[in-house]
Amino acid sequence: MKKVTSVLVFALVFLMVGLNSVLAQESLLDKIQKRGVIKVGMFLQYPPTEFRDPKTREPKGLEVDIAKLLAKDLGVKLKIVDMEWDAIIPGLLAKKYDVIIASMSRTPKRNLSIAFTSKNLEDYAVMALVRKGDTRSTVEEFNKKGVIVTCLLGGICEVAARKFFPNATIKPMQQMPGALEVEAGRADIFVAENIFAYNYVRERPGKLKIIFNKHPLTHAPSAIGLRKGDQIFLNWLDNWIQYQWDNAVLQPLIDKWIVKGGKP
Question: The domain containing residue 193 runs over which residues?
Fold first, then answer.
């Protein structure tokens, strides 16, 4: 009996030590406030949500405005860390920045590596770009052998392309090259999120047109990405996003950048 009691006492002490260790770990939320700066990872090649102003080279766009709001509410300065898209999650895991705000949608594969807020910043729709004179407009017409489909490498658009066009040849690549392949006639269709599609036809009128805009292939809600294991910071970010929606802060920004292309 004494042996059993000793084992139980040891187990209880071990559990309490482990619990105290977890509780003693300082949340990144506290560290950010102490240092006075939040570092945000972005992909500044994705207008109109995140890009560099051609004249000033300063970061601009929807996600930049959202990051500025986040820093303001935290009472700290903002530092944007520009990364290539395929390096943005590794950069977060390497602690080069605190969070990712980069129009990143949740996918099971990404969620294996990092945590995401459960609240959405935006809800993007996946559409497609084709040449202006192309008369095809249905999934069936593009889901054929000999059709070349370009899409953004490693994102929700690649998932959609492989799902809806399994019989076609899928060529994942960066966004602008993917659209230019269609424009040059080397590909038939570019699968893109609405933010890129609308901005492309606005910036290059007469070249390509949007299809699947009335009935998108799929939707891609974006969220804030962060390292796993910090429930305090995750909870604060979720509440912060909900607060912005409840107080009608995010929708005007989305309208400004997505619908109007950054014009007031």
Answer: 125-220
